[in-house]
Amino acid sequence: MATAAVAPPKGGFGYRHPRARLAALLGGPMIWLVVVYLGSLAALLLTAFWTVDGFTGAVVRTFTLENFVDAFTTPAYLQVMARTIGIAVCVTILCLILAVPLGFFMSRVASKRMQPILVAMILTPLWASYLVKVYAWRAMLSPESGVIAWFLSPLGIGGPGFGILGIVITLTYLWLPYMILPVYAGFSRLPNSMLDASADLGAKNWRTFRSVIIPMIFPAIVAGSIFTFSLSLGDYITAQIVGGTTTMLGNIVQQNYVTNLPFAAAFATIPVIIVLIYLAAVRRSGALENL
Amino acid sequence: MHHSRLLKMAVATSATALLLAACGGSSDDAGTDAGAAPGGDVYAGPVGDGEGALSVLAWPGYAEDGSTDPAVDWVTPFEEATGCAVDVKVFGTSDEAVKLMQGGGYDVISASGDASLRLIYGENVQPVNLDLVPNYADIFPDLKDRSHNTVAGASYGVPHGRGANLLVWNKEKVGEAVDSWSIMFESDSPAAGGVGPYDSPIYIADAAVYLMATQPDLGITDPYSLDQTQFDAAIALLEQQKPLVGEYWNDYLKQIDAVNAGTMTGATSWQVIVNGFDPAVVGSTKAKEGATGWSDTWMIAKDTANVNCAYKWLDWMASPEINAQAAEWFGEAPANTKACDLTADPAHCETYHAADTAYWEDVYYWNTPTEDCLDGRTDTKCVPYSEWSKAWSELRS
């Protein structure tokens, strides 16, 4: 009996210790997520309740709510908040207007052979450095000598120049691929049978688009909008380079983080709150389950 | 069950992280008492053998080791001469420099005047025993014992070089003869729409310099010590300037681009930038009202472990040969009187007004505004730098 023992199941330590296996699998990501991600957010939030020494700019650890009061009661800062949200919304809408026809063309009209090539072309701008692209737009937008101004001058109108419009154009350019990709994927998942059924029931193109296609790709649109909206909300370098005198939320944080870290921290929680509200709204729409 | 375990693990890790974050750096709390006399003992010397390593925090171009341009290298010869292996970290703004220095880990720093007092009172740097820096004797006298490098009779470093912030303008659009900051501040300016102020709280001092000339009854004597009334007047002037502004700049590449494109037509600038402009199109001068400027100082960290290497570095940077190289590479006036004979361009010191004492009389070197007025007034409180910073970010909003 002893000699005829059944061979032990194959597998080593991990097989015999399922918890250790789970720890090995998730340990790294968990530490990353909790310490680096949530930890830094928590540290940020904590810092926001401290104050600084007016003399040296060093952080003093005494509790105060003043930073939040300042951030939410100073008219100039409220204006920046409104402006930043406005810019992020404009960028998202513009991306949407451009991405839906493009995504439709890529997945439904272009040949199977062309599709990967088109996707690659959409992705290529992402290989170039963000800064290079923003500086390229500086050259495009520059009043008088810029490419756009030169193009428009025969019509007797000046270019958009540096300012809010310049920021919106540049950010739209930067984040467009993040909208196109999910929308393209959404169109690709759309079953032909649905469109056929719609046609069989007598719906014309517009009706099909409105009642069948849009509801089907809505989750994809929402996914893309999360990218474009939150990326625009946090951007400050674009505003610095093509914004002229315009400032966004990130610029305020950047201006303050060295001299008044607690205030910068309090201010930096604003985009976090806005994005959380946005995500909550999106979640209610049910779009997150389809990502 | 597994879920709750994971959750516990998560809570435990985040609690540890928070604890670490809360404890980190709390040891230097004692040093942040505002107004306390800056402490630390002066190194008695003598400067002995180097410790073998030196960590340098510097403005770009101040500690070149040949990596930018193989021909520009005064760090390697220093390493060979002293045996101190140098590690250079470059910073972009004074605010950044202060933050890095507060974090610790650096032995010496090239601090501008708007950083030096924060470092001195924050107990991040130690007083310097100038007897141990032989080359200090040759430093221009008008750079010694200034309020940004000397506190209560104790010196905190060795001057490196200086420059004035210049007025530049587009001759085609603004005119040939310009000599006043008024083109940047007055509503009827021909440069309206193309004004380019420096994007930093310290620019409030530029407005104060202009007010010194145009509104003498405000009684400003030092643009870095403004009481509330004077400060409000400066901010009001900057509000008046705002509609004229095309762009604020703090990236000098951005300014070069905008001035060359003809969109920035009246701006504040630095000599090193101006040298690249076409003098037929872009005029430059030190405005008649005077100007802000910078004077940089090499300082030693309070708790440096490499004090001998640090003193060797201070003396090295103050030596005529190296000071000439560094000042010429960066484009500023050297601090050592003997450096002027050693620059590759014999006219360098003349271009940058190194020995022209009169030129510097109305140049107000960047300084750190503090609550105790720097100009010696005791009957009033001045607006500290943290308020400058706040006001600037509101102005820019």
Describe this structure in words.
The complex is a heterodimer of chains A (291) and B (397). Chain A has 291 residues and is mainly α. Chain A contains 13 helices and 2 strands. Chain A has a domain at 74-127 and 163-242: MetI-like (MetI-like fold), CATH 1.10.3720.10. A two-stranded antiparallel sheet of chain A has the order 1-2. With 397 residues, chain B is α/β, with parallel strands linked by helices. Chain B contains 15 helices and 13 strands. In chain B, the strands form 2 sheets. In chain B, strands 1, 2, 3, 4, 7, 8, 9, 10, 11, 12 and 13 form an 11-stranded mixed sheet that branches. In chain B, strand 1, helix 2 and strand 2 form a beta-alpha-beta unit. In chain B, 49% of the residues are buried. The model of chain B is unreliable at 9-37 (pLDDT under 50). Classes of the chains: A mainly alpha (291), B alpha/beta (397).
Features:
heterodimer, A: 291 residues, mainly alpha, MetI-like fold, two-stranded antiparallel sheet, 2 strands, 71% helix, 1% strand, B: 397 residues, alpha/beta, D-Maltodextrin-Binding Protein, domain 2, eleven-stranded mixed beta sheet, two-stranded antiparallel ribbon, 15 helices, 35% helix
SSE layout and pairing:
The complex is a heterodimer of chains A (291) and B (397).
Chain A: H1 13-16, H2 18-47, E1 51-52, E2 59-60, H3 66-73, H4 75-109, H5 114-123, H6 130-141, H7 147-152, H8 164-189, H9 192-200, H10 205-234, H11 237-242, H12 249-256, H13 261-284
Antiparallel strand pairs in A: 1-2
Chain B: H1 2-23, E1 53-58, H2 75-82, E2 85-90, H3 94-103, E3 108-111, H4 113-121, E4 125-126, E5 150-151, E6 154-155, E7 158-170, H5 171-174, H6 182-185, E8 195-196, H7 204-214, H8 228-241, H9 252-260, E9 266-270, H10 271-274, E10 282-285, E11 291-301, H11 307-318, H12 320-330, E12 333-334, H13 348-351, H14 357-361, E13 363-365, H15 385-396
Parallel strand pairs in B: 1-2, 1-3, 8-9, 11-13
Antiparallel strand pairs in B: 3-11, 4-11, 5-6, 7-9, 7-10, 7-11, 7-12
